[in-house]
Amino acid sequence: MIPVILSGGSGSRLWPLSRKQYPKQFLALTGEQTLFQQTLLRLNFDGMQQAVLVANQDHRFIVQEQLDAVGIQAQAMLLEPFGRNTAPAVAIAAMQLLAEGRDELMLVLPADHVLRDQRAFQQALALATIAAEKGEMVLFGVPAERPETGYGYIRSKADVRLPDGISRVAEFVEKPNEDLARQYVESGDYFWNSGMFLFRASRFLEELKHHDVDIYDTCLLAVERSKRDGIAVSIDSATFACCPDNSIDYAVMEKTERACVVPLSAGWNDVGSWSSIWEVHDKDQDGNVTKGDVVVQDSHNCLVHGNGKLVSVIGLDDVVVVETKDAMMIAHKDRVQDVKKLVNRLDADGRSETQNHCAVYRPWGSYDSVDMGGRFQVKHITVKPGAQLSLQMHHHRAEHWIVVSGTAQVTCDDKVFLLTENQSTYIPIASVHRLANPGKIPLEIIEVQSGSYLGEDDIERLDDVYGRAPQSATVHSIAR
C-alpha cells in the first residue's frame, strides 16, 4: 500500500497564522510536530511503503526540511506549479506509479488533518483494504456526532455485496444549514466526508477517464512532460495550466457506482477553522484555550493565540484572538468560517500579509523583517550550516551586513573573504554578491538595505545551488 499525501492547500481559514507561502500543514498547531509530520508519522507500520507527496513547487524545500526533521524519507515528491484541486493531484500520483509499472493500493490522505486514535485508524484501514482489493472506491466517513455546518456529508445505504461494516454511498451532500445538519445526525445514516480515500491506482484512473476525461488527458500529458530531479518530479506548468480544477468527490466519487464508506471513529478533525483548533486542545476551567504570553480574565470558551506580544482578554465569551508579528485577527467563534472571505478581500487589496509571515523560509535558512521605512529595511538573516544564498545582484539597493554569530563567507564582485562575530561589510548597488555559511553552527547576520526600491523582485539571480531558475530583476520573485 502506498500513502499519497496531498499537501497543496493554503489553509486560508487559519489566517493570520497560516499564509500561502507557509500554510497550516507545515505548522505545529496541535502538538510538537506539524500536521504534515503527524500525518507521516502515523503511517509508520508494517505494510505501508514510503509516501508519495504531492505539494506546491513553492513548498519543495519546506517539505524536505520537515521530512529531515523527523527522519522520514519519501519515495517521490510530485511538485505542482499551482493548485488544481485533489482530482488532478491524485491522478498525477496514480499515473506516475503506473508509468513505473506499479499498481498498488493508494491511500490518499490530506496532510493537514488530526487523528487521535491510531489503533482505530488501522482497524478502519484493514476493513477498507478488503473492499479496495475487490475494486471498490473506499471513502473513510466519520460518523456525524453533532450538527456541524462546516463539513460535507455522505448519506449511506446498505449493500449486501459489500463486506460487513461497509456501506454504499447513496448521496453526497454539501455543507448544510444547522437544521438540516441536525436532521442528518438524528437519522444515523450520514457521515462527515473526511477527504481520505483508498483505491487501486488503475481503478481510480479508469473511473476518472470515464467520468472526467479532460482531467485524465491533461494530467497524462503533464506527467509525460514532467522533469525529475532525484525524488522530485516537477509537473509541466504549461500543460497543467489547462487542467480543470476539480475535487475527487466531484470528478469521480459522486459519479462512480463503486463508491463505498468505511466508518472512521478515530478522533478525526480537519482543523479547518479556528473553532476546530479550539475543539482539539485542552481547556482551562472556563473553557479557554491559550498559547503564548496570554492573560484571560472573566472570559469563557475563547481561543487566544499570542506570538510574542502580551495579549490580554477581559470579559469576552466565544471569541477567537490570534496575534502575529504583522497582523491580528479577532472573530466570534460562530463566524470563523468567514476568515476565508476576509483573506480574499485582503488579496484583492494587494495586501502582502496573506502571502508571507515576517519570517520567510528559504532552502538556505530564513529571514525576518525587523523594521522598514521609505528608503531602508532591516532584516535578521539566518543561514544554515553549509548553506549559501544565490549569487545575485540588485539594481536599486545597497546592503550592509553585520555578523551577529557564526562565520560568514562573503563574495563581493572579485573578492571572497570571511567575517566573524561583530564584523561587517558593505555591498554596493549592482555588485555581484553571495552570502554563505562555511561553519558548523547557524550564521546570523543583520542586513540593512538602503536605496530607492527595496522590493524582493529587485534581484538578478546568476547562480543557485538549489536549482532555482535564474531570474531577472524585471521578473517578480519573492525568493532570494
TrEMBL record:
GO biological process: alginic acid biosynthetic process; GDP-mannose biosynthetic process
Pathway: Nucleotide-sugar biosynthesis; GDP-alpha-D-mannose biosynthesis; GDP-alpha-D-mannose from alpha-D-mannose 1-phosphate (GTP route): step 1/1; Nucleotide-sugar biosynthesis; GDP-alpha-D-mannose biosynthesis; alpha-D-mannose 1-phosphate from D-fructose 6-phosphate: step 1/2
Keywords, comma-separated and alphabetical: Alginate biosynthesis, Cobalt, GTP-binding, Isomerase, Multifunctional enzyme, Nucleotide-binding, Nucleotidyltransferase, Transferase
InterPro entries: EF_Hand_1_Ca_BS, GMPP_N, Man1P_GuaTrfase/Man6P_Isoase, Man6P_isomerase-2_C, ManC/GMP-like_b-helix, Mannose-6P_isomerase_type2, NTP_transferase_dom, Nucleotide-diphossugar_trans
Pfam families named among the record's database cross-references: ManC_GMP_beta-helix, MannoseP_isomer, NTP_transferase
Domain MannoseP isomerase/GMP-like beta-helix: 292-346
Entry-linked PROSITE patterns: EF_HAND_1 (PS00018)
Boundaries of every Mannose-6-phosphate isomerase type II C-terminal domain copy: 350-464
GO molecular function list: GTP binding; mannose-1-phosphate guanylyltransferase (GTP) activity; mannose-6-phosphate isomerase activity
Recorded catalytic activity of this chain's protein: alpha-D-mannose 1-phosphate + GTP + H(+) = GDP-alpha-D-mannose + diphosphate; D-mannose 6-phosphate = D-fructose 6-phosphate
Membership in a protein family: Belongs to the mannose-6-phosphate isomerase type 2 family.
Job of this protein: Produces a precursor for alginate polymerization. The alginate layer provides a protective barrier against host immune defenses and antibiotics.
Binding partners and assembly: Monomer.
Protein name per its UniProtKB record: Alginate biosynthesis protein AlgA
